[in-house]
Amino acid sequence: MSLTYLISLPSYYLPLKMLELKEAPTLYQEIQHLKKEKNAVILAHYYMPPELQLIADKGGVADFIGDSLGLSVEATKVKEQNIIFCGVRFMAETAKILSPEKNVFIPDNDAGCSLASSITAQDVKNLKQKYPGVPVIAYVNTYATTKAECDICCTSRNALNIARSFDSDTLIFIPDVHMGRNLQKKITAETGKKLILWNGVCEVHEQFSEMSMKAFKEIYPNAEFLLHWEVPQEAVSASLDERKGVLGSTNDILKYVGESKSKQFILASECDLGATLKGMYPNKEFITPCIKCPQMKKINLENLLQTLESIGTEKASKYEICLDADTIRRASVPIKRMLKFV
User: Cα–Cα distance between 93 and 106 in angstroms, integer?
Assistant: First the structure.
């Protein structure tokens, strides 16, 4: 996939509250109407297109915008019976695990994840046989059946604290090898612990290369770097060697920008996080290698509307997340352990 560099953000990336909804007023109105009629709440991930990140009280349709775990936690608090998760499947599964009594839907059931698909429940069983007694930490970007075989889950926000919490000097971390290598550097320096890694990658973040980061460094000598944990270690080193910036979770990135005095940033994460950042900080500039997640982009206003229309009909099964009771029970254990670190 080629990179298209956005040196100045077009109107597509204007602060979300400023969008005038000229392109799809009928869709917005129909979704807003049906959402009330169907007793539904809409969750939108930071990687969704801007039109789905527009919050309901600003004229859009999303009730909550956030990262995957934050949205799943919000789903447990709402009174609505029907949850529509605008994200990828593993995220909607997590919402279902935490709210098994609610109906959870995703506008496209084929919206998967290269990282989650890189490892199976059987792979985890094999790792546990190979390394008996070694705790298994599963990044939340895994499917429910995989989570069910693990000791604890983690997010990019709390992975370090969770790794520190174990007495064992060796830990299995799955599935993102780039995130694991970045964590390994910090964990080894702080605790001496060793991570056994799985060779899974995110198809978006693996595209940020050492060469491209060095080029950005030369072109924008005053910009600070915003890098997700899932970016390859070589690209991280090229970015943060003698340059300010942050390596961390999406929330770490959002917080860093808010606290930084810099007016210019280079974002090494999914392209539409740039829309979130521009909406939050309209007076700052974000240079964004426009790498989009093709799975996230399967979700749009049209299939969101179709999902709402299906609720209460025989078509609902096309969009509903269905997990068997045993998977929910077993997967909830590592997730609930993780929540103690949020």
Answer: 9
Total count of domains within the chain: 3
Rounded average pLDDT over 229-233: 94
Structure tokens at 300: 């749009």
Q: Is the pLDDT reported for residue 21 higher than 50? A: no
* SS3 call for 65: strand
In this structure, the answer to whether residues 260 and 211 fall within a common structural domain is: yes
Query: Could you tell me if 92 and 107 lie in one domain?
Result: yes
Q: Which residues are within 8 A (CB) of 29 and not within 5 positions of it... i.e. 6 or more apart?
A: none
Q: Is 185 exposed, middle or buried (0-12, 13-18, 19+ CB in 10 A)?
A: middle
Q: How much of the chain, in percent, has pLDDT values that exceed 90?
A: 74
CATH of the domain at 211: 3.40.50.10800
Residue 148 has pLDDT above 90, yes or no: yes
Pairing of strands 40-45, 64-66: parallel
Q: Which domain holds residue 133?
A: 122-202+322-342
pLDDT attached to residue 102: 97
The verdict on 140 and 102 lying in the same domain is no
Whether 1 has a pLDDT exceeding 80, the answer reads no
Burial class (CB in 10 A: 0-12, 13-18, 19+), 302: exposed
pLDDT of 342 over the 50 cut: yes
Q: Are 184 and 195 in contact (CB under 8 A)?
A: yes
CA angle centred on 141, ends 184 and 335, rounded to 5°: 90
Q: Is residue 287 part of a domain?
A: no
Residues 231 and 310 in one domain: no
Cβ count within 10 A of residue 57: 9
The pLDDT confidence band at residue 25, using thresholds 50, 70 and 90, is: low
Same domain, 190 and 328: yes
Look at residue 222 and tell me if it is in a domain.
yes
Residue 18: the pLDDT is 37
User: 20 versus 38: which is more confidently predicted?
Assistant: 38
Mean pLDDT for all residues in the chain? 89
Q: DSSP assignment, residue 153? A: E
Q: Are residues 52 and 189 in the same domain?
A: no
> Could you tell me if 158 and 304 lie in one domain?
no
